[in-house]
Amino acid sequence: MSPSGFKSGFNPRRLHHWIAFGFGSGLSPRAPGTAGTLAAIPLYLLLSPLAWPFYVGLLVLFMLVGIWACERTARDMGSKDPSAIVWDEWVGFLLTMVAAPAGWLWILAGFVLFRLFDIWKPWPVSVADRKVPGGLGIMLDDVIAGAMAAIVLALAALWVPI
């Protein structure tokens, strides 16, 4: 049993656990990061019609809330960055899609690009992952991966007429 008394470390009585665990998507027994990213797609679809400033404002809010929720949840679990914490994947994917064209092919491309950057962890993602502690560190590597994926996606959108 985990310190919180729940086998997975998830405590349904704590709001920060709900957020950090991506509203349960991080409880997937296999590939919780991928499951968390998939779970972020409906939120993206809900937010995508918003004007860009509102979308970005919510993204900043989600990042700040994530720093708090992931920090507290990781501390509760006694781990630096538990794989079940997937709010960082949610925010990273939403950042990936910040300027993406509409359509399911772009969502799929954004999903693949974000997962590649998140798993591969090229510089500077790897530096943030290793060197930045706490909730900021949990969030930052995925935000950087999301920004890198967003750049690739935006460049692709200039040349690929889908």
Automatic annotation (TrEMBL):
InterPro entries: PgpA, PgpA-like_sf, YutG/PgpA
Keywords, sorted A to Z: Cell inner membrane, Cell membrane, Hydrolase, Lipid degradation, Lipid metabolism, Magnesium, Membrane, Metal-binding, Phospholipid degradation, Phospholipid metabolism, Transmembrane, Transmembrane helix
Molecular function via GO: metal ion binding; phosphatidylglycerophosphatase activity
Keyword Hydrolase recorded: yes
Pfam families found in the cross-reference section: PgpA
Record membrane topology: Multi-pass membrane protein
Gene Ontology annotations of biological process type: phosphatidylglycerol biosynthetic process; phospholipid catabolic process
Coiled coil: none
Top-level taxon: Bacteria
Cofactors (names): Mg(2+)
Catalytically driven reaction(s): a 1,2-diacyl-sn-glycero-3-phospho-(1'-sn-glycero-3'-phosphate) + H2O = a 1,2-diacyl-sn-glycero-3-phospho-(1'-sn-glycerol) + phosphate
E.C. no: 3.1.3.27
This protein's GO CC annotations: plasma membrane
Pathway: Phospholipid metabolism; phosphatidylglycerol biosynthesis; phosphatidylglycerol from CDP-diacylglycerol: step 2/2
Subcellular localization: Cell inner membrane
Positions of transmembrane segments: 52-70, 91-117, 137-160
Domain YutG/PgpA: 18-156
Function: Lipid phosphatase which dephosphorylates phosphatidylglycerophosphate (PGP) to phosphatidylglycerol (PG).
PANTHER family: PHOSPHATIDYLGLYCEROPHOSPHATASE A
Protein name as it appears in the record: Phosphatidylglycerophosphatase A
Gene source species: Thiocapsa rosea
Classification lineage: Bacteria, Pseudomonadati, Pseudomonadota, Gammaproteobacteria, Chromatiales
